Amino acid sequence: KQRMGMMEEIAESMKQVGSMIRGQTPFKADTVRAAAESMADHAGKMTDMFPQNSTGGPSEALPAIWEDWDGFAGLADELEARAVTLSQAAQNAQGVDEIRPHFAELSRTCAACHEDFRKAD
Q1: Residue 58 near residue 1 (C-beta atoms within 8 A)
Q2: Which three-class secondary structure state does DSSP give residue 118?
Q3: Is the distance from CB of 25 to CB of 19 less than 8 angstroms?
Q4: pTM of the prediction?
């Protein structure tokens, strides 16, 4: 349940920044920075949230996590690094164009992990 909450917080942060990228909400650098810092913090704890054989319901985690632990851990590290980069880019950003490529990289990392390690919706 704790890791599901963490993943929901990451998803909420992604939605918050994504709405700015799509022009649905005004750009606020402080909000982007806070969302990115939250994601980086969660990513840094991600592997701790997946102890061996913790696949019981209602988890969406696939056994592939433990079968390819290095791949999963690598994506968690990548998520943390990309979130830090997004946070840094937001510090002096005046608009979404300055953070868009960093958000896109972060989004690709999330998608890669979901593709390999999460049950399809």
Answers
A1: no
A2: strand
A3: yes
A4: 0.92
Q: Measuring CA to CA, how many Å separate 95 from each of 18, 38, 58, 73? A: 13, 20, 39, 32
Helices 2-21 + 29-45 axis angle, to 10: 150
What's the token pair of residue 60?
A: 């969406």
Amino acid at 80: E
Residue-wise pLDDT tens digits, 67-91 = 999 999 999 999 999 999 999 999 9
CA distances from 115 to 71, 75, 93, 112 (A): 12, 12, 31, 5
- Which residues face 74 on adjacent strands? none
Token pair listed for 108: 């690709």
Residues 6 or more apart whose Cβ sits within 8 Å of residue 62 = 55, 116, 117, 118, 119
Q: How far apart are CA 19 and CA 54, in angstroms?
A: 33
Instruction: Give the pLDDT band (50/70/90) at residue 121.
Output: low
d(CA 101, CA 2): 30
